[in-house]
Amino acid sequence: MDLAFRRIIISAIFIGVAIIFILRLFYIQIIDDSYKLSAENNSRRLVVKHPARGLIYDRHKKLIVANEPAYDLMVIYGQIKDLDTIQLVSILGIEKSVFIKELANAAKENKFRPYPIVKQISAQTYILLQEKMHNFPGFYVQVRTVRNYLYNCGALVFGYIREVDKQNIANDPYYEQGDYIGKIGIEKVYDKYLRGIKGAAYQQVDVKGRVKGSLEGGRHDKPSILGKDIITTIDIELQYYAEQLMKNKIGSVVAIEPSTGEILTIVSSPTFDPNLMVGQNVNKYYKILENDPYKPLYNRAIQGDRYPPGSTFKVLNALVALHEGIITPQFTVTCKGGYFAGGLHVGCHEHPPTVGLLESVQMSCNAYYCTIFRAIIDSEKYGSVRNGYEVWRKHMNSMGLGKTLGIDLPSERPGIIPLPTYYDKYYGKNRWKSLTIVSLSIGQGEISMTPLQMANSAAIIANRGYFYTPHVVREILDTTIDNSFKQKHVTSIKPEVFEPIIEGMYRVVQGEYGATARHIAIPGITICGKTGTAQNPHGKDHSIFMAFAPRENPKIAIAVYVENSGYGATYAAPIASLLIEKYLTDTVKRAAWDKRMLEMDLIHKANAE
Length: 609
What we know:
Strands 2, 3, 4, 5, 10 and 18 form a 6-stranded mixed β-sheet that branches. A 5-stranded antiparallel β-sheet has the order 12-11-22-21-20, sandwiched between helices. The chain has a 3-stranded antiparallel β-sheet with strand order 1-8-9, with no helix packed on it. The chain has 22 helices and 22 strands. The chain is of the alpha+beta class. Helices cover 36% and strands 20% of the residues. It is elongated. The longest helix has 29 residues, at 3-31. It folds into 2 domains: 44-80 and 88-232, Alpha-Beta Complex (Penicillin-binding protein 2a (Domain 2)); 236-287 and 299-608, Beta-lactamase. A hairpin with a 4-residue loop joins strand 11 and strand 12.
C-alpha cells in the first residue's frame, strides 16, 4: 500500500470521527436540549408569568367574576436532591401516595422542565411552605390567579376554568401543562380574550434552588399582558332573583331586551355554585355534578330542544295564517268542547262557543288553532299538502325555529320543525295529510323549541316582526364584538299582522272573562303574554309562559318553562310576571306571590308523590 493511499485512509478516518462529533454536538445542543436545560437550570430558572384573567361585569358594570391569588407548587425533577418527602407532604396536607404518583408523572413528562405537582394550594400553606423551601431543591411556588364568582349564580352562563388536557395543548400552542382554560359559558367562548398573554421572568438561583435575584438585571424578562375585561348583557340582580325563583324546580328562564337581542337573564335549573369549580376539589365536585340525576351541567335554556312549546306556539300559527291571508282577525270558529274530525278529538277547556282571533289567544282555544292550521296546509293556492306545509315551515324558520339562533354560548341546539321527508319516512311519500300532523297546531307532536327560541319569539312579536341574534356579551375591552349581533333579522311575516296578536296577548293578562293569566297582572305595567301547557308522556304536564312588557316600546321579552308542574298559569306565568316587575321597577311589591314562588319545592314534592 503506497504512502498516498494511506494518507487518504487516515484523513478519511479523521474526517469521519470529526463528522460524528459534530453531529453529536448538533444533536445535544440543538435537538436534545436536556443537557443545556440541566446545566442552565442549576443556576437559573424560567418562571412563566401568568397574566390575570380578564374580569367579567354585568350590564350595569357590576363586577361579577373576579380573580384571587392561587399558588401552584412546581418541580423540576432533575434538580431534586435529598428530598424529605414526609416533611413536604406534611406541610402540603396531602397523601404521600398521591404526591409520589405526581412526582412520577413529573419525571415521565420531562425531568428538566417545570411541572405543576400540587395545584392551587391555600395562602396559609403557601406561607408555611415559603419558610421551608430551602429544604426542597428543585421545588418552587408559582403564583397565578383563580376565579371568584361574587354572586353565586350564573354558573352555566359565566362558566368556569379547568386545567388544560392533552387535546387543548395539541389544539393551541399557547397552552402548556398546568395552564387553565375556559370550559363552558363565557369563560369558554371568550377564552382567547380573557386569558391574556403570558410573560416570562428569568431568575438566578443557588444550588439549593433559592432565588438570588433576576438574571442579568431582568434584561431577558417579558411582562405578561392582562386578559381583556368583558361587560356582559346580563342583569346580575335579575339573574340571581330568577335562579332563586327557580330553586327546587326543573326548567328554564330566558329574558331578552327586544330592541337589541341582549340577554338579561338566562337560567337553567337546577344549577350549582360556580365557586365549587375552584380549588383542589374541582374533580371531586365535577364528578358529583356529572352524576346528579337532575343534570345541573345541562343547560336547558339552549340545549333543551325536546321541549314542546304547547299553546305558546298558537300565536305563531296565527301569524302565518294572517300573513298568508288564510284568515282575517274577524274569522271565527265554533268550539263545542274541542276539535272533532273523523275519529280525532282534541279537547278544549270551557269558554264561550263562538271564538274570534282575539278570543282564541285570550282563552287559548284548541279548536280555533286546529282549524286554521289545517286551512293553511290544505289551502288550494299551494297546490298540495306538501307545498302548504313547506310554506308554513319556511315562515317558522324565518322566526328562528328549527335552527340555532347563534347565541354566544356553547352547545346551542336547534329545536325541531320537521322536514316533509320526516313524515314521508313514517307515513309514506304524499300519504300524510293536514289531519295527520294537526297536533302541530297547538305546539305538540313532533315540534320542539328551546326556551331561548321561545323568548326570542316573544321578542319578535314585541318588535312587530324582527329580532337580533340573542347574545350575552355586550363589550370586550378595546375590542369590537362580533358584528352579527348588531344585524337585524327580519322575518317573513308582514309587520301589520302583529297588532291583532299583540291585542290578544294583552287580553291574556289584562282581559276579563276567560283570560288565562289575569291573576298575574301588575298595576301600571302592560304585559302581553301567552300561557302554555305542554303534554308530557312521562309525567305531569309542563308549565309554560312567554310574554313581553310593556306593550309599547317593550323593554323585556321572557319565556319561563317549568317541567312537570301543570298549567302554564300555575307556575310559569307568576314567575315571569315577578321577573318583569323586578326588571322594570327594580322591586317586587307582590309579597304573597314572591313568597309562594320562592318557597315552592316542586322537585321534592314530586318525589314525595
